[in-house]
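Usage example:
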Amino acid sequence: MRQLENLYRQIIMDHYKKPRNKGLLDDARYKKEHIKNPSCGDDVTIQTFVEDGIVKDIRHDGTGCSICCSSASVLSTRLKNLPVTEALKISENYINMITNKPYDETIELEDAQAYEGIKDFPARTKCATIAWKAFENTVK
Amino acid sequence: MDATSFKKDFPALRNTDLVYLDTAASSLTPTSVIKQMNEYYEHYPVNVHRGVYKLSFRATEMYEAARNTIAEFIGATFEETVFTRGASSALNLVASAYGLTNLKEGDEIIVSELEHHSHILPWQNVAKKTGAKLIYVPLTPAGRITVDNFKHVLSDKTKMVVLTHVSNVMGYETPIENIITLAHAQGAIVSVDAAQSVPHKPVDVKKMDCDFLAFSGHKMCGPTGIGVLYGKKHLLDDLEPIEFGGDMNDNVEKYDAHFKDTPYKFETGTPPIAEAIGLAAAIKYLRSIGFETIYAHENHLKEKALDALEKLEGITVYNPGTDTGIITFNLDGVHPHDAVSFFDEDNIAMRAGHHCAQLVMRFLDVPATLRASFYLYNDEADVNRFIENVKAARAFFTEVGF
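Running the assembly step on the lines above writes:
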């Protein structure tokens, strides 16, 4: 079976077709980060609202391939309502998994685990990580 | 032409099922070019123009013989053939050395939305710094530059015409000779980006009568890191160098220096020696096959692919009238980066993205496209596998819910 078949099943297509937390807010309490991959045109903006060290809300918007757009939706559901330190730890772990570096398999990635197969598509790692990198920049 | 016989000339195609459809970005390299470059590195890997010893003399001879081969290939003279590190730096040289000095507020530069970024950004810079204005040739609905549309924007204010010979996305050939005649009648200077034409068809700069023309080695079976700028001798004579340093001068005083004549005044530093020698070998290789044969072969494969694509549902081809081996298309509703991974899994190498031509993407009103481009080493089996994969990809993405 094609590796790609595994990758595009269920979770990724679900978040691609029905993105959660999509659309940016005009609210000064949110910090915004815009990242563009000029080589393919993936274009993601992540907006986070942090209060008392907790990520209270994550919004996203942008255009790009299914991997890029869905990963923004997935991260918004996974990291919302977590302490910033924990959210960053999960994000770092996720990026390590995608980029084929050692990562802690005991950290629960939930839906984000679906992107593990990206390892077999090194040309697509950027697609799967730019939303997460944008998120990190909003809370660092 | 039997392309299977050419596949064996390319080490990257031996013992592999690779279908390489990304020549418009970079072509593969034949053994003869690799051998010629290895010979330089193995037997006379030394600098040119400097050493007064036998090896350096040989390196210099080979380097300058390469320039002669390349000059003769495009119908230019030795002095009119400047080595650069690619078409991009050649086109930048024209903008920086000619444009920044000769253009002023109120002047107009005619450009097109079909230009590669390397032929538009240098002139945006000239426009910003000099106050000259960029004027876009209106494209036809299909995306072509025509002589009639060119006439609409040509005026006595036009000082510069900056156009591609063949679009790297649409594959259209610009009616450049007629445009040049009209431009010259207004006293304008013409810069031609020939990166997508020189590898595929004979180009004679004297017949074309362009003022400047640029192309790259790596799109025509040559190495990366080398390009060529052709300029008319009297224009190059008048240009100031934009890079200064070793080898480009002939007398250096404390507060002044005197520069060599063209082409050397534009070639400071150690030049791409192996690459120049490799590019000459690539030209020999292509000529041994013949450009008419190459062009007819590419055209045949392209027509076969287009015929098959047109019969498929859910595929949009943006340039069905392409004049060259370039086909730009999308699977409807599927981002090209999603699609290209599907092809990659079957070892079909194809470009997905904006192809360094974002203005074309805006014209087509798409974020990005897929692009397949054919060259002499492709064959009918490649076309068949490409089409089978398009069908399978279409079915797959529909099935997973795109």
